Amino acid sequence: MDQLGKIISLKKIVDPRGNLTVVEQCKDVHFEIKRAYWVYDVPAGESRGGHAHKALHQLLVAMSGSFTVNLDDGFRKASYLLNHPWEGLLIEPGIWRTLDDFSSGAVCMVLADELYDESDYIYDYQDFLTYKANNP
């Protein structure tokens, strides 16, 4: 992936009774979905994330409201505003991420290709830079 993250458009079915968006594993995302979780009720001014994964692939979707995802590969940085429930941000392993600027009522859903594994997380930024230097 040339970019730090990749915004993808998900199938949006427009209906006067309410719209519907679908995401299918190995079709809309290139991985098998093994875990889903969501972040919500984030107080104003708070940040979430603040870590990287060694092996985990993720798709982040703003189910409601908006927030900014800041990505860093140790050399480059990029920011992505997520504010449409029919768009998602793909994040590959080895990328530091923070989620900031949550609007009131924002909900961030995350689809991941692995079950929770504490050993996959890097929580210290300096440790992340060391990891990246040793795992280009």
TrEMBL record:
<feature type="domain" description="Sugar 3,4-ketoisomerase QdtA cupin">
    <location>
        <begin position="6"/>
        <end position="132"/>
    </location>
</feature>
<protein>
    <submittedName>
        <fullName>WxcM-like domain-containing protein</fullName>
    </submittedName>
</protein>
<dbReference type="Pfam" id="PF05523">
    <property type="entry name" value="FdtA"/>
</dbReference>
<dbReference type="InterPro" id="IPR011051">
    <property type="entry name" value="RmlC_Cupin_sf"/>
</dbReference>
<dbReference type="InterPro" id="IPR008894">
    <property type="entry name" value="QdtA_cupin_dom"/>
</dbReference>
<dbReference type="InterPro" id="IPR014710">
    <property type="entry name" value="RmlC-like_jellyroll"/>
</dbReference>
